[in-house]
């Protein structure tokens, strides 16, 4: 440790070989300690502030979300559809600015939401979200319900081109009903027939129920899987092979049918419909975000739902009465079914 040079000018400094002088630095050390604490505290504060600033779901940015400079980014398929045009108009009228981000597929929206590139998305039903979470070990959550697009049961036609039946209760005992043979719609179609009371299952219905789960001895009708695109044409052929069939919405118009022609369809209140509730999804940390919840509330207003009904040609059954807690419970149940099924 060097000492202060106290020798006279021009003389070489003397080396001090004695024990170093123990100077009392208590006051200086206290000042240094206080400064260090202040600097560390400031660093933690500014580090926390910057971390929150960069996190889309954090408190610092939540205050400004929904402003013109920081709009809520919502991923959808079909950003120019009437409901989204009306939604954006209604949101801005209520002081919430949104950016409707258009996607061309159904595979990119959830990864974009999980990565923080989106604040919300609305393109999927609960079953699709559950599959994504389970397969990717994620925890995206529903924030609000939108609608269910019912799966209808349609009567076969006679040779004069008229429906043979006007109510599903009129189907003869032992007659045959066709259902789509693809995995997702097959399970849903069985659920529709169960809800209608014409088939009985050996156990509980799940989104993975198959024809072998039907108790034929206790069911009013028999079920036969067919290619979805073939069911409508078979019903209209005037033959006696089928008494009715479950037709996907995609094929109803193509077959020259109207959704109102269905002799039965599922509804938003039935247990079998729950996996097919279309929802707004957010990251788990954002389920209580007031701005995002307001977006859902705005979407669920009459002008927007009217536009949605127009886009769906009258087929949408609104699912706007479910709470976030209810939807989250349904999602958890579906995820459990997926794990139990080994899918």
UniProtKB/TrEMBL annotation:
Organism superkingdom: Bacteria
GO cellular component, one term: membrane
Region annotation (Disordered) ranges: 1-20
Keyword terms of this UniProt record: Lipoprotein, Membrane, Palmitate, Signal, Transmembrane, Transmembrane helix
Subcellular location field: Membrane
Record's bilayer topology term: Lipid-anchor
Transmembrane feature ranges: 30-48
Family under the similarity heading: Belongs to the NlpA lipoprotein family.
Name used for this protein in its record: ABC transporter substrate-binding protein
UniProt source species: Bifidobacterium italicum
């Amino acid at each position: 440790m060097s000492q202060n040079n106290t020798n006279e000018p021009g003389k070489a400094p003397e080396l001090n070989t004695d024990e170093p002088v123990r100077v009392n630095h208590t006051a200086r050390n206290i000042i240094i300690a206080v400064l260090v604490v202040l600097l560390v505290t400031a660093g933690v504060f500014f580090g926390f502030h910057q971390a929150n600033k960069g996190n889309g779901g954090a408190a610092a940015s939540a205050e400004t979300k929904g402003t013109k400079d920081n709009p809520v980014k919502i991923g959808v398929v079909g950003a120019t559809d009437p409901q989204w045009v009306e939604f954006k108009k209604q949101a801005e009228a209520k002081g919430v600015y949104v950016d409707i981000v258009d996607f061309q597929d159904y595979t990119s929206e959830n990864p974009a939401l999980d990565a923080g590139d989106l604040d919300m998305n609305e393109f999927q039903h609960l079953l699709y979200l559950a599959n994504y979470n389970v397969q990717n070990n994620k925890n995206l959550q529903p924030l609000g319900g939108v609608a269910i697009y019912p799966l209808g049961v349609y009567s076969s036609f006679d040779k004069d081109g008229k429906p043979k039946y006007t109510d599903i209760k009129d189907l003869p005992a032992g007659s045959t009903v066709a259902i789509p043979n693809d995995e997702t719609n097959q399970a849903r179609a069985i659920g529709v027939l169960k809800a209608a009371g014409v088939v009985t299952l050996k156990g509980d219905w799940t989104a993975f129920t198959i024809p072998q789960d039907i108790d034929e001895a206790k069911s009013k009708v028999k079920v036969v899987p067919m290619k979805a695109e073939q069911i409508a044409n078979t019903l209209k052929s005037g033959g006696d092979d089928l008494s009715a069939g479950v037709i996907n919405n995609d094929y109803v118009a193509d077959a020259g049918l109207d959704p109102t022609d269905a002799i039965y369809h599922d509804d938003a209140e039935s247990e079998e419909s729950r996996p097919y509730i279309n929802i707004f999804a957010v990251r788990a940390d954002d389920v209580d975000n007031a701005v995002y919840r307001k977006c859902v509330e705005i979407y669920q207003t009459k002008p927007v739902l009217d536009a949605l009904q127009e886009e769906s040609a009258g087929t949408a059954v609104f699912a706007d009465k479910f709470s976030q807690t209810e939807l989250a419970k349904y999602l958890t149940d579906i995820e459990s079914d997926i794990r139990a099924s080994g899918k």
